[in-house]
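Exercise 3.2. Students should predict the tertiary structure of the chain below and write it as structure tokens, then compare their answer with the key that follows.

Predict this chain's 3D structure.
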Amino acid sequence: MKHLAGAVLLLLAAFLLPAQQQQESFDSLFEGEILEEAEEAENGEAGGAVAETDLFEDELFEQAGEEPIAPEEAFLLSEQLEWGGSFDMSFTTQVGWDGYPNSWKMFSREGSSSLASRLAADLYFDARPERDFRVFGKVKAAYEYPEEWEIGIFELFSDFQVRDLLFFRAGKQTVQWGVGYFFSPADVLNLVSIDPEDPGADREGPIALKAHLPFAAHNAYLYLVANDVDKPYEIAVAPKIELLMGSYELGLGAFYQTDLTPKGMLTLTGPLWDLDLFGEAMIQWGSDRTFVRTTTFPLYETYTVEQQLLFSGSAGFSYLKSDWNLSLFAQYFYNGQSYEDGRLPSTAVFALDAGAITSADLLYPGRHYLAASIGWSEIGDSALSLSLLYLANLSDGSGLITPTVSWAPIDPVTLSSGARISYGDSGSEYAPLGGSLAWTLSASVGAGRF
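Answer key:
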């Protein structure tokens, strides 16, 4: 995969750079002539040229046999390949303490420090040679010491349609399935779950064919997901319909794949005063997760939940005040695939090391969760921003609080500092070793989009 992604990057560079140079040469070839005509127009000497153009305009169109392109059609065409991306290099240092320092001596001497450096970039291309055909691709690369480079194709798909009635997307794509901000129990199509500590991050999607049929103010979708399958009967089928009811939108969907539990989902979004509400629910017959329980010998055993109806749901709201650059999000999550006591068994780590379970099986062991964040950017038209994130597993009584202050003295540089405060009993989700405190300082250098 790394060799394939590297080849894609080289191919893009080989294609794009000559195209860009050719365009610059083409523009410079006629630059002087364009300036001369502009100066003649200012002096009133271009009237003849304009009249001559009008004289032959109809004849030229007749010879070419072409009809003028409607303005709305022109936006759907691109004679050249569009490309862009982003780049970021960051350094983060962290000093942490086991427990909460209760004296200046403990605060200044007994902390453990670490430094992490990370380099990340993505490159995309977008081509629409015809009104009814488009190809989009994105490659991501990341490096964080001491890990090796991670380079891969993040998205690669084509868009096409039939008579402006039925629209298709084929290839590797991020799927818009759930509506949650911190948690999305209904999203069973994307390959990774939302990270509550970074809910705005891109999420990798599957290889799929999407069919979209808009009707009136509503939408109907059908996904055929062929990620990691080698038999025709293993292709997953996921239909979905979105119904607009006044100012609210209701979504109904289902998911079926051989050897996986069938699932049904419901979403609802809409406004209430100045708030934007969102909620989703999912029912499933059994669970695809592998659970762990502690035994006398050999320390643990795994089991699955089958032939049982499970329910998961979530509800929340967002509040955005653009005049103040203020944002507020809050969400509650009921997890129907939890452990009875809301926490992972201590032997789960041994099962993970042995390959008996995956990291996905460790997510959200609790039954009840709560998350909230508030952000205030460019305070008073300054380069200063504040944010606060709160995550809690209400089942085991653990939580995480991360206040952060950021300052961007110049465009490509951002400095951030904050605390990471975890609370809870030993063995809990957000405080596996008990309550702790960490202070972080990070610098993002040279970050930007192009």
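Discussion points: Residues 286-450 form one domain. The first strand starts at residue 82 and ends at 98.
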